[in-house]
Specification:
The complex is a heterodimer of chains A (about 350) and B (about 775). Chain A is α+β, with helices and mostly antiparallel strands and about 350 residues long. Chain A is built from eleven helices and eleven strands. Chain B is α+β, with helices and mostly antiparallel strands. Chain B folds into three domains: about 180 residues, Aldehyde oxidase/xanthine dehydrogenase, a/b hammerhead (Aldehyde Oxidoreductase, domain 3, Alpha-Beta Complex), CATH 3.90.1170.50; about 300 residues, 2-Layer Sandwich (Aldehyde Oxidoreductase, domain 4), CATH 3.30.365.10; about 140 residues, Aldehyde Oxidoreductase, domain 4 (2-Layer Sandwich). The relative contact order of chain B is 0.13. The chains are: A alpha+beta (about 350), B alpha+beta (about 775). The interface between A and B is large, with 47 and 56 residues. The complex binds flavin-adenine dinucleotide and iron/sulfur cluster.
């Protein structure tokens, strides 16, 4: 491993100053960054550990009623936070469906947002990968597989954003608070995960300080559904987060996002608009899901993900309205309630 | 015994072999079953694995590996690596010290050809191409990265279609590539129906938790001590000596604890030889610990196969013919071929029976044996074909298997030494509730999930080697046994002590076992599920031999109450000898020794199969596995919800250890069916998921309710202990059972393993 300096500053100012060094990188739980350093995909000269910074901790309610999740809040703490469980349990479901207990104990909110793509070539420094290194091409261009994108991709990159948490955050319309030496700003979550056709995510030297959930997204009926072969410790093949508000038999607010299909948690205003004002039910959900997948195309041997994603979106919407009996609130996998007995065969 | 006397620090550099007393725990009815001898050392961290060991002035090694599967190394930036602080030496083919045996020279079947920096050719991605020695592991790893190899790459031959066809004569370890009994063409022609199943299985990697690691130290010009996990310490120590030009006995391998081997720790690999070579060259101990990624290539794997089975079905659901064709992937430089076809040759009664293997040479690391080599992949395909045939015959899968129950080995016509498979079917079916299985598609459960039930037959041969052991009875009434046993988690520490104690007619609690070093009597390799049979029998025979000596001493001594009883007139029990005709007349072993003025007697024992039995009988462990799956009807997410396995494995020496082996087998079968697969990049031949995040094995949450049962089986022929192997049989049958359950739930016949969401999705 390339030798590096390690700092754990205690003020935001000190952290931002350390980050002006072009070789410096923010360090949360290190569960992703360290792996990238070991394989040579990331070679920072200085690590700036953000977990001791005041103001990046905990879950709190902002003056305007929004929920504020600290950037250095550990994933495990997020998942068990009483405010989250009461008002945005979708996030708990999403977080607990991801990684493993050990990783979640270390991983932070911001680190989860900015984790590297799970394209295998990204972690193989010998492979050309524009996403890792602006100069070279894309090793996945001719041989993209089931873990690559079916939406929003182009020939410069076919990788998907691997996070579960972000899918839930996207459905809730979260925004991200960013600090630089010039001051603080707020951006939509999507700005952090640009499609390959757009530019860079976070400007160098910037730190994420918090993620904010709009007050109107709190208390929605919501559900995170994640599909994968392995029950735990596996990224989503496809996932979906749905949050709905229903009044008088009509949907009055809707958030819908897909994971595992694009470089960003995939949302489409048209899909959400199609839900608003409609009666919740299979037809409404199918229409919204179809709109959400509009324009999807295989980037390799992954065309099946298009139909699958549509079904996962429908499932998330219907379970947001009617939770399945016997289903625990988390960790959000389709098979969370293991059966003890021989099933009654119908 | 108390916990205090249990060693909390185990083995330092001076010891040859580790000695462990009995565990302070027992369980089972009346506390009769010994708990793991090594358990406490492991849970307290006292048990040192090779990578845990330290030495004075230790150097650390790291390897640079080939980024492509085929080509040449053109340049390495050794200057950059040497300039990195802490880096001491860089070995490349240009300066690697000489070897007495070329890494590609095969003097012995287990001299697997490997890469020890002999030249600049690249024959698979991940192959070691340079070795960096440094003061810290981090500096060595960074040195290896800085080598930034320049490669002249050639298009790799990565998969079946690009591979070079090759017809091997032997597959597996010396097994024939082809065989035919009867006339398969005629049997198929005469069949009422013929079913054909084609199935592809992927490359799979052993992925033991413990990485391959070697600590090499020279204790003299002709004395090399290797701390390394190894499944065949005596054999491999001899082979290592050959490469280094050392006389026999110059190399000691110490391997008291192995964190899983599964076959991958039975091979010679470059790092092993190079670590010893570097330590000699630099005059300092050297430690190498392979990274997880570096275990994908140089230390073997289970080769991918394409299999085609044709089954002819005659009247009454009887098989008229079975033809098993296998194309296995082989490396370009070594001849190991996955012997999958053998899995179908001894199981079902079929008059016309054939198997044919061919191979495709590809630019991948060499495959070797991996837990149930051949049997696992062959059984997976066979059991699916059997269910397709059962359906064609209009029979329940179990009824179909019973109607083709083999009373004698169909391949050889020999009787089975014992075969309680019928009892396994019955016990497993009963525990599972198989009788309620609907013949057609299963239907849904209360939550709307598609449910399917499937089964498979398990079979694994009873391997036996030749092993030796030494057992002593001491004047203080205790005993000790010495054997180069191999404990890779399966429980050899415990079982071998139990066997020695049984031979001694003593409580294992009074016996210390010394094991884990190649300087001890050769317990033979731990592979093919034959270690307990071989080393256990040797230990038991050595104990018996020691007792015979005690009996001779006593019966010849006029002062002994046993004087004149004759050898056959004396019974040994619980550390005492007594007269067969009058049990009240006797004395303890220590009394015999005390009067003879001896500190101890030493018994020698050999474990091997009686030749006449070997030639006269077919010997196999058997079992029946039943599985239930639940499948999301829209999303195709599959989960195994229940598994029951009933096994007949001869005598069960330690039920708890057997249970963990059998459960491990079922889990591996599940892993085979639904998870494991190495993915190769077609462009470079690199493995794209060479880590445990990408190469999936089941997580705890994937493991359903598992039930393992054993049925009683007495086998007078298999060996003196009557034990058959339990280590591998559980994988066979289980992958097929899960595939068949998926088939029952969906109607879809799998064409590849692992079975993927997209495969099932297309059939919902
Ligand atoms: C085997 C495995 C399985 C996994 N499975 C899943 C899964 O199923 N679902 C899932 O969602 N995730 C999964 N993960 C990913 C895991 O969630 C991430 O590794 C983790 O969330 C990263 O958080 P961290 O704090 O450790 O990030 P780090 O590794 O510390 O950092 C990651 C990136 O974020 C940057 N960063 C960190 N904090 C800040 C900040 N405050 N401001 C600006 N930049 C910052 C770092 O510079 C770095 O680029 C898995 C990981 C592993 C290893
Ligand atoms: S798909 Fe993206 S991450 Fe993968 S190799 Fe191409 S550019 Fe890199």
């Amino acid at each position: 491993m390339k030798p590096f300096d390690y700092h754990r500053p205690e003020t935001l100012q000190a952290a931002l100053e350390l980050l002006t060094d072009p070789g410096a990188t923010a360090y949360g739980g290190g569960t992703n960054l360290l792996d990238m350093m070991k394989c040579g995909a990331a070679l920072p000269g200085t690590l700036v550990d953000v977990t001791a910074l005041p103001g990046l901790q905990g879950v709190s309610r902002a003056a305007d009623g929004r929920l504020r999740l600290g950037a250095a809040l550990r994933n495990s703490d997020l998942a068990r936070d009483p405010l989250i469980l009461a008002e945005a349990p979708l996030l708990s479901e999403a977080v607990l469906s991801g990684a493993s207990g050990q990783i979640r104990n270390m991983a932070t909110t911001a680190g989860n947002l900015l984790q590297a793509p799970r394209c295998p070539h990204y972690a193989l420094p010998e492979s050309p990968c524009a996403r890792r290194d602006d100069r070279t091409g894309c090793a996945a261009r001719d041989h993209a597989g089931r873990d690559h994108a079916v939406l929003g991709w182009d020939d410069s990159c076919r990788a998907v954003h691997p996070s579960d948490l972000c899918v839930g955050l996207a459905a809730l319309g979260a925004t991200v608070e960013i600090a630089t030496l010039a001051g603080r700003s707020e951006q939509p979550l999507a700005a952090l995960h640009p499609l390959p056709s757009a530019g860079r995510a976070l400007e160098p030297g910037a730190l994420i300080t918090a993620v904010l959930i709009p007050a109107a997204s709190l208390g929605l009926r919501a559900r995170y559904v994640k599909v994968r072969e392995r029950t735990s410790f596996a990224f989503a093949l496809v996932s979906a987060a749905a949050g709905l508000e229903i009044a008088d038999g009509r949907i009055t607010r809707a958030g819908l996002a897909l994971g595992g299909v694009a470089a960003t948690p995939w949302r489409r205003a048209e899909a959400e608009a199609a839900l608003i004002g409609a009666a919740p039910g299979p037809e409404t959900f199918a229409r919204a899901a179809a709109l959400l997948l509009q324009g999807a195309s295989p980037s390799g041997e992954n065309g099946f993900k298009i139909a699958l994603a549509e079904r996962v979106a429908i499932r998330a919407l219907s379970e947001a309205v009617t939770p399945r009996a016997g289903q625990a609130a988390w960790p959000g996998s389709v098979f969370d309630a293991p059966k003890e007995d021989t099933p009654d065969v119908a | 015994m108390s916990h205090d006397s249990y060693p909390m620090r185990v083995m330092d550099a001076a010891e040859h072999g580790l000695t462990l007393p009995a565990a302070p725990l027992r369980y089972g009815s009346g506390g009769k079953v010994p708990a793991r001898r090594d358990g406490l050392a492991k849970v307290t961290g006292a048990a040192l694995y090779a990578a845990d060991r330290q030495a004075e002035a230790l150097l650390h090694a790291a390897f640079a590996t080939a980024p492509v599967a085929r080509g040449r190394v053109v340049a390495l930036d050794t200057q950059a690596a040497l300039a990195h602080p802490g880096v001491v030496q860089v070995y490349t083919p240009a300066n690697r010290p000489p070897l007495a045996q070329h890494p590609d020279e095969k003097r012995h079947p287990f001299n697997f050809r490997h890469e020890a920096l002999q030249d600049d050719t690249i024959r698979y991605a991940g192959q070691p191409i340079a070795m960096v020695l440094a003061e810290t592991p981090e500096a060595a790893a960074e040195g290896a990265r800085l080598l930034a190899p320049e490669i002249a790459a050639e298009p790799p031959r990565v998969d079946h279609d690009a591979g070079t066809p090759w017809q091997p004569e032997m597959v597996g370890f010396f097994a024939p590539a082809q065989a035919e009994v009867g006339d398969v063409a005629r049997g198929l022609a005469e069949a009422e129906q013929v079913v054909e199943v084609e199935i592809e299985t992927p490359d799979q990697f052993h992925n033991a938790m413990e990485p391959h690691a070697i600590l090499a130290r020279w204790e003299g010009p002709e004395k090399l001590l290797l701390d390394t996990p190894n499944q065949g310490p005596v054999m491999i120590a001899g082979l290592v000596a050959g490469y280094l030009g050392l006389p026999e006995g110059a190399v000691e391998i110490r391997t008291p604890f192995i964190g899983g081997g599964f076959g991958s720790k039975l091979m010679i690999y470059g790092a092993m030889i190079l670590t010893a070579l570097a330590a000699r060259d630099l005059g300092r101990p050297v430690k190498t610990v392979l990274s997880r990624a570096q275990m994908y290539g140089p230390v073997g794997h289970r080769a991918g196969t394409r299999q085609r089975l044709r089954l002819g079905i005659g009247s009454g659901g009887r098989l008229t013919a079975l033809d098993h064709e296998v194309t296995a992937l082989a490396s370009s430089f070594e001849d190991f071929v996955e012997p999958s076809g053998h899995a179908s040759q001894h199981l079902y009664a079929v008059p016309n029976l054939a198997m044919r293997h061919s191979a495709r040479r590809v630019d991948r690391g060499t495959p070797v044996a991996m837990r149930a080599p051949g049997e696992a992949s062959g059984s997976a395909a066979l059991e699916v074909a059997m269910d397709v045939a059962a359906e064609a015959a209009g029979l329940d899968p179990l009824a179909f298997r019973l109607s083709n129950y083999a009373e004698t080995d169909p391949a050889t016509g020999r009787p089975f030494s014992s075969k309680a498979l019928r009892e396994c079917y019955a016990a497993g079916a009963e525990a599972f509730g198989w009788a309620g299985r609907p013949a057609a598609r299963m239907g849904r459960d209360a939550e709307g999930r598609l449910i399917g039930w499937g089964m498979g037959t398990s079979q694994y041969m009873c391997t036996m080697y030749r092993g030796e052991a030494r057992v002593k009875v001491h004047a203080d009434g205790t005993a000790s046994a010495a054997i180069a046993g191999v404990d890779m988690g399966q429980g050899a520490w415990t079982i071998l002590a139990q066997c020695a104690a049984e031979g001694l007619s003593m409580d294992p609690e009074r016996l210390r076992l010394t094991s884990g070093s190649s300087v001890l009597p050769d317990g033979a390799v731990a592979g093919g599920s034959g270690h307990t049979a071989t080393a256990g029998m040797a230990a038991s025979e050595a104990g018996r031999n020691a007792v015979e000596q005690l009996i001779s001493l006593a019966t010849a001594d006029p002062a002994s109450p046993l004087f004149g009883a004759g050898n056959s007139g004396v019974v040994a029990r619980d550390g005492r000898l007594s007269r067969a005709d009058d049990p009240s007349r006797g004395e303890s072993y220590s009394e015999v020794l005390a009067r003879a003025g001896l500190a101890e007697v030493e018994g020698q024992g050999v474990g091997e199969r009686v030749q006449a039995h070997r030639e006269g009988y077919a010997m196999f462990s058997h079992g029946a596995v039943f599985a239930e799956v639940a499948i999301d009807p829209e999303l195709a997410q599959m989960r195994v919800t229940r598994m029951v396995g009933a096994f007949a494995c001869g005598r069960i020496l330690n039920p708890r250890m057997v249970q963990s082996q059998l459960e491990g087998g079922l889990i591996w079968g599940l892993s085979f069916a639904l998870h494991e697969e190495a993915q190769y990049d077609p462009a470079t031949g690199r493995i794209l998921n060479a880590d445990l995040a990408g190469y999936h094995v089941p997580a705890h949450a994937d493991i359903p309710q598992l039930t393992t049962l054993t049925v009683a089986e007495e086998d007078p022929y298999v060996n003196a202990l009557g034990v058959k192997g339990v280590g591998e049989v559980g994988i066979t049958g289980s992958a097929g059972a899960i595939a068949n359950a998926i088939r029952h739930a969906t109607g879809f016949t799998p064409t590849r393993f692992p079975i993927r969401i997209e495969d099932v999705l297309a059939h919902l």
